Amino acid sequence: MTMSRTNPSTEKPNSDKFARWRPKYHLLAPNGWMNDPCGLNYDAQRRKYHAFFQWNPFGNDWGNMSWGHAVSDDMVSWSVFDHPALEPDKPYDGEGVFTGALFPAGLDGNANGTLTLIYTSVSKSPIHYTLPYSHGCETLSLATSCDGGLSWNKVEGNPILPGPPSDTQAISWRDPYVACWPGMSRVLGLPSHQVFGLLSGGIRHKTPTTWLYAVGSTDLTDWRCIGPLVDIGKNFCPSGADFDMGVNFECGNFMSLEDADGGSTDFLIMSCEGVQTRGETADDTTSTCIKTQGWMSGPLVADYNGSAQMQWECGGRLDFGSLYAANSFWDPVIRQQITMGWIPEDGLPDATRHQQGWSGCLSLPRVLRSLALVNVTGSRHGHLLGMGAFAVMPDRDGTFILRTLGVSPHPNLESLRKCAREIRISTADLAAPKGPRHWIGPVMSLKSQQWELKCKMALKGDCQRVGLNIFHSSNGMTNMSRVYFEAVDGRVIIQKAAVHTVAGANVASDSAPHPLFRMIDTRTGAEMEEELLIHMFYDQGVLEVFFNERTTVTSRLYPLSVQDTSLQLFAEGTNEAEATPLDVQGAVWDGLAA
């Protein structure tokens, strides 16, 4: 087929508009529009990581959906191909090669150097969960490569599945994920090497869900439907949350993550469409529907007929900012589950976005793990009940164990610091020039738009707010973003600069609940509050912030000036505070480079 060209880029790669907010150490397409990461995996034969992504090589809007491709030795420094790996060039995928997976084996299941892509082949559009669904518009297709991904051949028998099960009223069915799932194998009594496939979507008027399939171990074209994996209902709202899980899932991934005690916990991550604010319903046409990146965990339960479901125990948002369409894989090198997501450019007005000639990037790689907080007694923000993102279990001596999904930067990202200038920060740097309630540190002038900050803060009882000022120019306070923790409310907030930013840019703050917990110190028996851990990466306006390795917020900033940046630590205490209301230790690395 002949691919149409939509909103061709007006800017060249060496132009100021093209480069102004273009990240330098994040993975992104050579030009044009990009969205979902696809096919994240590791080729053990060649010792290469692969990342694919949805790409429109002909324009800067969604359309002409192809697969871009990049390879890496370490998931930090990427080599990006300048041509698509897959294009919509067949009758069954002429409307788009949508998101999918990479399985590091051939069609016969042998890991002999052949690679297999499993993707959503689209033959009819538009497709949206609010529209009538045409069965067969989304099908499942495969492509293989025998040269390490340099070239790909679509399988002659495509599509291998014609669409969702005919006995369900699906509203979408796409984004295949393929991997082994130890937890599900145990529940269904299948071999540990059993391969499963997952297709994401929803059942009209009922629930968002994912359909689980058993994939033939010696024939990747053999998919047997086990059934819908999730039945939580439309717009299910976790206890204590100010969001819900929507009406349609995209990009669902499953995983069994090892617990500290040697067991394992099963998780799903999913992108949620049709999310409403609390109190609204999906049927209310006056409501504003949004997308969020979610996760859930709970026991796997097999039915008598061979089907299985994950029951809800806890869940929440994988990222409280703009990140969406997260995909993941098991990394055999560091033996961890790794995820990357799409950071869209939707904070820019369309006219400005078209002028810059590209849209979107992928997040830095993140480690997912089963996180347990032990010896917990409570928090300064209230009781432990009704916290939907945590499974709360009573422990001995009246304490509790809290289980949740942990998220932290990939350890290989430390290599970004190899040529960076390190600036140490400590409590001694804080002064109180504005009276006893306000402490500020010295202004740290940076030489680049690529930096990292990592610090730990022990808050005292009279600390009300603590964080970081990010000055985007020499104008100081008039051109400032802030990342801070509200101790009274137990929330973290990214406040974007409202002035000296591009006209029409989204300057709404991003925020997330983030309680700090009190715990018993097993060495002394004393009760103590956990430290606030902040780890952030900044790259030409892309800001990824990790709090205590369990709360993540991704924001996109668009300052007019991308020349002068400086940082300043600040803290605020109560009126009675006479000493610095926290102890802080950390560092900034200025000049990160892949």
TrEMBL record:
Keywords attached to this entry: Glycosidase, Hydrolase
Biological process (GO), any one: sucrose catabolic process
Domain spans labelled Glycosyl hydrolase family 32 C-terminal: 413-576
Annotated Gene Ontology cellular component terms: cytoplasm
Domain named Glycosyl hydrolase family 32 N-terminal: residues: 26-369
Matching InterPro entries: ConA-like_dom_sf, Glyco_hydro_32, Glyco_hydro_32_C, Glyco_hydro_32_N, Glyco_hydro_beta-prop_sf
MF (Gene Ontology): sucrose alpha-glucosidase activity
Family, as annotated: Belongs to the glycosyl hydrolase 32 family.
Protein name: Glycosyl hydrolase family protein
Originating species: Dactylonectria macrodidyma
